[in-house]
Specification:
The structure is a single chain. The chain is mostly beta strands and 199 residues long. 0% of the residues lie in helices and 59% in strands. The chain has strands spanning 12-16, 30-39, 42-46, 55-59, 62-70, 78-88, 94-103, 106-113, 118-125, 128-136, 145-152, 155-160, 163-169, 178-182, 188-198. Strands 1, 3, 4, 6, 11, 12, 13 and 15 form an eight-stranded antiparallel β-sheet that branches. Strands 2-5-14-7-8-9-10 form a seven-stranded antiparallel β-sheet, with no helix packed on it. Strand 11 (145-152) and strand 12 form a beta hairpin.
Length: 199
């Protein structure tokens, strides 16, 4: 088996750390919503553990898949990365990033789950999420982690805490789309240092 490598040298890159944003409200210029039913709650909050203090983006509602996407992004090939901390959740404790987002029901997603100790990559089509690669690795609750995906054409490379854990291919979404953050069910998750770039 030959491992795929994706050389992504973004011409433009941006980091969002939420530090200058209003506390208690969703970040301006983002769509705070969910895939499926329920009621996601996305808000900028102060958190002393933030990798870049003082603020984080927090998801504290309950929905099938809470998502929050940055409205002015449109990336086809490039990368998306975020630091996240799973805090609580009986059904799920995870954090994820999504890319080539067409709308709240159609996108690619990779997530790391602290209850299952794994990292998975999926496509979500018409609200239905289907995994196409998975790896078992320790994901600690209450600790900040870094999740990154590099994507070019139909090739994807997922890195978790600095280690490449998944190489995958998929043909579901070829067009550019928004980049976003994601959780599942009752997972209370903090996000910081959201970064993305187009190749």
């Amino acid at each position: 088996m030959i491992a795929m490598t994706i050389a992504v040298a973004p011409a433009t890159a941006e980091i969002v750390n939420f530090d200058e944003m209003k506390i208690g409200a969703p970040p301006p210029g983002w769509t705070a919503t969910q895939t499926g039913s329920g009621s996601a709650k996305w808000s900028v909050e102060k958190d002393g553990s933030a990798p870049s203090k003082p603020n984080v983006l927090k998801q504290s509602g309950q929905a099938t898949f809470p998502v929050c996407f940055k409205n002015d992004t449109n990336v086809k090939d490039g990368f998306v990365e975020v630091k996240f901390k799973p805090v609580t959740g009986k059904e799920d404790q995870n954090g994820g990033i999504i890319w080539r987002t067409q709308d709240a029901n159609n996108y690619y997603i990779s997530r790391a789950n602290a209850l299952e100790d794994n990292v998975t990559i999926y496509h979500t089509i018409n609200g239905k999420r289907v995994a196409f690669k998975n790896i078992n690795t320790k994901v600690t609750s209450g600790v900040w982690h870094t999740l990154r995906v590099e994507f070019q054409g139909n090739k994807f490379a997922v890195t978790f805490d600095g280690n490449k854990v998944i190489d995958a291919t998929d043909e579901s979404f070829a067009n550019a789309g928004k980049v976003s953050v994601w959780t599942k069910a009752d997972s209370v998750t903090l996000f910081d240092d959201f970064a993305y770039g187009a190749k």
